[in-house]
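A reminder from the course coordinator: this example appears on the midterm review sheet, so study it carefully.

Given structure:
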């Protein structure tokens, strides 16, 4: 009986450690990506990089989108400062993954995502695509 209690306690602790916001964000992104594949079973998770996503990050992203869509002669503008800009509004996740077909073909891809506390996942345009050419 003591061993069962110890095993249950250890398992609960292990599950509790994996329930961090970063792990929940990684899980949400995995589900998001696999559900958008032709065959969700072909999804193979790779590397995850996570960091807090703040209000200022959101404004900087929107500014980059606006610059990308603006006339190429326009001067790039610095993103405006926002009140409470350091407040975390989600988790940024950069994820590398691969798709392996039943025939053995492998394709690799990656994406950048924001996972909000509600569990909503938003795929971002990758940062390397937002840079001026």
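Designed residues:
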């Amino acid at each position: 009986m003591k061993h069962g209690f110890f095993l249950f306690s250890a398992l609960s602790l292990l599950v509790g450690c994996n329930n961090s916001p970063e792990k929940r964000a990684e899980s949400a992104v995995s589900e998001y990506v696999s559900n958008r594949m032709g065959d969700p079973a072909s999804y193979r998770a790779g590397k995850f990089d996570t960091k807090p996503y703040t209000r200022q990050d959101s404004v900087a992203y929107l500014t980059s989108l606006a610059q990308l869509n603006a006339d190429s002669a326009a001067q790039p503008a610095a993103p405006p400062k926002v009140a409470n800009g350091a407040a975390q509004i989600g988790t940024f996740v950069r994820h590398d993954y691969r798709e392996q077909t039943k025939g053995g073909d492998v394709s690799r891809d990656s994406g950048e995502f924001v996972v909000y506390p509600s569990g909503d996942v938003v795929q971002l345009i990758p940062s390397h695509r937002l840079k001026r050419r």
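The radius of gyration is 19 Å. Strands lie at 43-54, 88-100, 106-115, 121-124.
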